[in-house]
Amino acid sequence: MNFLKELELQGEINTGEDNLKNLLLEKDERLVYGCLSLRPKNVGELLKKTGISVPEMMDILARLLQKGFITETVKNYYIRKI
Question: Which superkingdom does the taxonomy of this entry point to (predicted)?
Fold first, then answer.
């Protein structure tokens, strides 16, 4: 029973962390970050989902990398950091 309560609390903590991350990101960064998950996505997928131009997308990804919100797993493939 305690294990289940811990999982429930962990879920609440993660939700709070996601809300905090959203407060720390600019609108365009939130849009791109929201498209990412733990499954790597390439730049082309992100461009299609967001409608953002290539130069702007690369700038946003660079900012998210610099802030530590995402990781580039292989060239031009990105995931959220846990």
Answer: Bacteria
Q: Rounded CA gap, 36 and 40, in Å?
A: 8
Residue 75: DSSP 8-state? T
Q: 72 near 55, Cβ under 8 Å?
A: no
Mean pLDDT for back-to-back runs of 10 residues, the chain (82 residues) = 49 55 86 97 98 98 97 98 84
Q: Greatest CA span in the chain, whole angstroms?
A: 51
Question: What are the φ and ψ backbone dihedral angles of 27, each rounded to 5 degrees?
Answer: -55, -45
**In the chain, what are the domain boundaries?**
2-80
- 64's CB contacts (< 8 A; 6+ apart) are 25, 29, 32, 33, 70, 78
Strands 70-74, 41-42: pairing is unpaired
2-80: CATH number: 1.10.10.10
